[in-house]
Design brief:
It is built from 7 helices and 7 strands; from the N terminus they run E-H-E-H-E-H-E-H-E-H-E-H-H-E. With 242 residues, the chain is an alpha/beta fold.
Length: 242
């Protein structure tokens, strides 16, 4: 039996586009009050305006540690309390290790790993005090097996997986659920898909997931009864050969 999300509060990082945006739309439709975090103020403001009077934007670059702390604190203050953290912001950077740019890797690590760790650290005391909360992190199939063309990206997602599994066990007794959602190829800008016809063709070929597919899975995780934790939800295009 599913649990209603109406009236609950949530914070979504990477909310201005892709999976974050689709999830914001879906959770707002469920009646949640949302804080939306990303770098693009204009995109965030437009999204918040189109969702509900209860949604608001918190622009910030989560690759900067102080910005993560500020965004988490502001969200909790303005929402009054936080029921859900969806730590979704991230970068995708494939390539050969011998030809990679270590400075670019550092930026990806800051966003994919450090910002996730820091965001969760920032909200945990609040959730532990309330003895309630859901934390979902956007991982990847690359977090479950090393991809030969994505060595550093895979490493960031493996780090996230280890962190999620350990933290879940630390806070389970506090009534907090922690899990990850790990999609395969998602047909969005992060993966270089922006043309609607091309996306539709890939969907018809069962060769890609849409952002809305992932958002539906997030809703499923959040609406399970309190006795159920979805530790890992791995979802692939039907014909993706992994």
């Amino acid at each position: 039996m599913s649990v209603s999300l109406k009236g609950k509060t949530g914070l979504i990082t990477g909310a201005s586009s892709g999976i974050g945006r689709a999830t914001a739309v879906r959770l707002a439709a469920e009646g949640m009050r949302l804080a939306l975090v990303a770098r693009s103020k204009d995109k965030l403001d437009a999204l918040a305006l189109g969702l509900s009077p209860d949604a608001f934007s918190i622009p910030g670059d989560l690759a900067i540690a102080a910005e993560v702390d500020r965004a988490m604190a502001e969200a909790i203050t303005r929402l009054g309390h936080l029921d859900v953290l969806f730590a979704n912001a991230g970068l995708y950077m494939p390539g050969l290790a011998a030809q990679g740019d270590p400075d670019a890797w550092e930026k990806m690590i800051a966003l994919n790993v450090s910002s996730v760790f820091r965001a969760i650290r920032a909200v945990l005391p609040h959730m532990m005090q309330r003895r309630s909360g859901d934390i979902i992190v956007t991982s990847s199939i690359a977090g479950h097996q090393a991809m030969p063309l994505e060595p550093v990206y895979s490493a960031t997602k493996h780090a996230v997986q280890s962190f999620v599994h350990s933290v879940r066990r630390q806070v389970a007794a506090d009534g907090i659920r922690v899990g990850s959602i790990a999609p395969g190829t998602v047909l969005n800008q992060l993966w270089g898909y922006t043309d609607s016809d091309r996306i539709a063709a890939k969907v018809a070929e069962r060769a890609g997931l849409t952002c809305e597919d992932v958002a539906e899975a997030v809703v499923f995780m959040l609406t399970r009864p309190p006795n159920v934790t979805i530790r890992d939800l791995v979802m692939l295009p039907q014909n993706q050969d992994i």
